[in-house]
Amino acid sequence: MATSVCGFSYGRNLIRTSYPVVQAIRSVLPLCDEFVFVVGKGEDDTRGLIASIDPRIRIVDSVWQESGKAGEVFLLEGQKAMDAATATRCTWGLHLFCDEVYHEDDVPAVRAACEAWGGKDEVKALLFRFLNFVFDYRSIDPWMYRKVSRIYKLDGSTHLVGDGCGPALKSFPAGMNPYLDKHHLGGHVRWAADPKGGPKAQIFHYNWVRSPEQMKAKISVMEDQYWGNLPKEERAIKAAQKFDRFMTKYDAMRTFTGTHPAVMRELVAAWPPLKTHRNRWLSPRFYQECLRHGVKL
Predict the structure, then answer these.
(1) Is 15 exposed, middle or buried (0-12, 13-18, 19+ CB in 10 A)?
(2) What is the DSSP letter of 278?
(3) At 21, which helix (H) or strand (E)?
(4) How many domains are there within the chain?
(5) Do 220 and 201 belong to one domain?
(6) Is 13 in the same domain as 149?
(7) Would you give per-residue pLDDT tens digits along the chain (297 residues)?
(8) 66 & 162 share domain
């Protein structure tokens, strides 16, 4: 039986919040036989933007829950999208986040992995290298999470957990964490790479490529979605700490020397660096981060 892939995603107010959703979707369409997008009711024309990208995209309308525990709305909307993808009866679901872009050079390797493991019932997810860009398109934070599962079997054996960022097995041995990103659980996860050899596929994560002003606005959204149940003073402290942490770590970040996905070239060319990059090996902050989180090159 041929292996098939359904892309799935969700979002709202994506124009207003400056997400590269058009580039993200276009980067994965060469991998997808079908694509489902759950659009939340919002204050901009996200729905029209998504519909204009490609006729293969099927839109599901939704209304977001406005309150709940940290990240719960993302879990609910992500699961709606995954359920809609499962209904297509495709072999795999490609869980696309609106700030994650795939490189065209990795498409053959991802296809090869989907074909190789599609008929293996024990393999439930494919794992990618993850590049976290911060403030500009040349600065990578190596201490953020470095690998994620983004392609899952649509066989009913997994569901989203936490804030919807990753899959977990519905049934798992006692005492085992079911989260597939954290624990490979024996043979349940494989790299998104050609099994015959070659590099592991990467995902370019652009969520934090924002000006300082946009970064503050982004963090204010996080205040509502993740810290909404906390007292106002505590929310303000968390927001300030997160912004300050990004600013102070800038000199410790790794300089990206590779190529960005082709769909991102116009955005990359138009975006200036935050400031002159220092050699991070000469930055005291680099060694502080290494002592705190380990050496990540």
Answers:
(1) middle
(2) P
(3) helix 21-28
(4) 2
(5) no
(6) yes
(7) 589 999 999 999 899 888 999 999 999 999 999 999 999 999 899 999 999 999 999 999 999 887 666 678 889 999 999 999 999 999 999 999 999 999 999 999 999 999 999 999 999 999 999 999 999 999 999 888 889 999 999 999 999 988 888 888 887 766 566 778 765 656 899 999 999 999 999 999 998 898 877 777 777 766 666 656 666 676 666 666 666 677 778 888 899 999 999 999 999 999 998 887 778 777 777 777 777 777 776
(8) yes
